[in-house]
Specification:
mainly beta; Cystine Knot Cytokines, subunit B; four-stranded antiparallel beta sheet; 2 helices; Spz/Toll_ligand-like; disulfide bond; Spaetzle; Cystine-knot_cytokine; Spaetzle domain-containing protein
């Protein structure tokens, strides 16, 4: 039997001292010492083929241009269901974003945007956190009641010219840029227990302007000719 050093586990703003004994059967037996009245299960069974619940690289089944995945073949549904039942996880930590209220009087046909985008609610099962790690995000579906629905906005044509009706000054160009926000979501830790973490989520599509390299080169060339 191998003993792992005492570590600190921070989950939902509660600091717990955790001692883990890893048995040869592939399960984890836990003994906790805490000054609070928090009730912790004494045993957490891991799926045998999971050596770690955190990945350094994006799964091949995920889109290369996104920071999240909704459908992951390796999502540990049964493990998460078992852990949530044993920990008696409050459902107050879960839910879905409410749809924004449109306060304008214009109809959708009268509206136009200089950067086309898609707005929708996603239920990610894996995402990239602020440390560039890929972690499983708890989304068990409506039947279990543990869902995390997030409102996002994705550029349809990122890094391309905005559909700007006017004209800019010479030497400038417009470009559609994807913007991101950081969201706190309940995910799985390295040993397969729930913890809060911060994830990078696409939040808006904005039109920006920038100077072109051609204009800057022409300006430098003109300054050099003036000096001569």
């Amino acid at each position: 039997m191998k003993s792992v050093n005492i570590t600190k586990l921070c989950c939902f703003n509660v600091i717990i001292l955790l001692h883990i004994d890893i048995a040869s059967s592939g399960s984890i037996s836990t003994r906790f010492r805490t000054d609070s009245a928090l009730i912790i299960p004494e045993r957490i069974d891991l799926i045998s083929n999971f050596k770690s619940f955190i990945l350094r690289h994006k799964p091949t089944s995920c889109r290369t241009d996104l920071t999240y995945c909704e459908d992951v073949d390796t999502y540990p549904y049964n493990h998460i269901k078992s852990v949530l039942l044993r920990r008696d996880m409050p459902k107050v930590f879960f839910g879905r974003d409410e749809l924004p209220v449109d306060l304008t009087t214009k109809s959708r046909n009268e509206e136009s945007y200089i950067c086309k985008s898609i707005k929708k609610t996603i239920f990610p099962t894996m995402g990239q956190n602020i440390d560039n790690q890929w972690k499983y995000i708890i989304n068990q579906g409506d039947r279990d009641g543990f869902v995390q629905g997030i409102q996002i906005e994705i550029c349809q044509t990122p890094n391309r010219q905005c559909d700007y009706p006017g004209s800019l000054a010479m030497g400038y160009r417009t470009i559609c840029k994807q913007k991101y926000a950081y969201r706190r979501l309940i995910s799985l830790s390295n040993v397969g227990i729930p913890e809060a973490d911060t994830f990078k989520i696409p939040s808006a599509c904005c039109c920006s302007y920038e100077r072109t390299f051609e204009f800057m080169n022409r300006r430098r060339g003109g300054e050099m000719r003036e000096n001569f």
